[in-house]
Amino acid sequence: MKRSIGMPVGVLFVLGYVSWAEAAINITEAVIQGGVVHVEGNQALRSAAIFWEGVALGVSSNAGGAFQFDTTDLPADCVGRLKIGTEERDVVINNCTPVSGGGVFKTGQTISFAPGDDGFYQAGTPVPSPRFTDNGNGTVSDNLTGLTWLKNASCLGVQTWPNALAAANTLSSGACGLTDGSVAGDWRLPNRNELTSLLDLGMLGPALPAGHPFTNFVASSHWSSTTAAGILDRAWSVDFFFGSVLNDDKPSNLFVTAVRGGF
Fold first, then answer.
1. Second-level CATH architecture of 2-92
2. Which of 61, 124, 138, 159 is deepest in the core (most CB within 10 A)?
3. CB-based burial of residue 41 (10 Å sphere; 0-12 exposed, 13-18 middle, 19+ buried)?
């Protein structure tokens, strides 16, 4: 009798232990803000030491398996290795700019029109999925570059180049659907490289990644903040219909969007 009772108790104990040990770490948030990586999650081993990129952080999961931590150790590829107790997993960090792969990103062209062309090799740093995060406050985070964009892309309308600079620099929360707490000076006109980073050259009219969360993004020319070298009365612009990079006279009226971050 004692033996028959003891066996089920032992089996239940072992099964319970295995079930908990096999629980997968669940990440509920992984983002970089102000140069600090913030990670939160649950379903980890209970009261276990946390390691990030092989380094002990000096913190542990709680008795329920939940955890959170901040670290300045940002992996170059924006994917960190998390270990809690004996469990490990890779964590993709949102709002992060990868520096692997030479920092040259894929164009988005996936169809090959000739052997050896862009669509054939599709060379460059892979694009994260999802590419963009709608922050629900009038802003969109680009998970490829780490930049934050104005969601209502045409809110600032068409402007001359000097007026475009002023419109972007004075943008703040309360305008253009923004509820992000930003103040004048937080936003700016994107430079040429920042603006071209939005292009997807596999798309047309607009040449933006499929499924992007922007609203009212007009497939037309947008100002960058970059003056054309040697031609001081002209500045670079990006045509979001074909994906062309141009330069225009600064008194011309082109569309304006705004960006934050990137420093």
1. Sandwich (2.60)
2. 61
3. buried
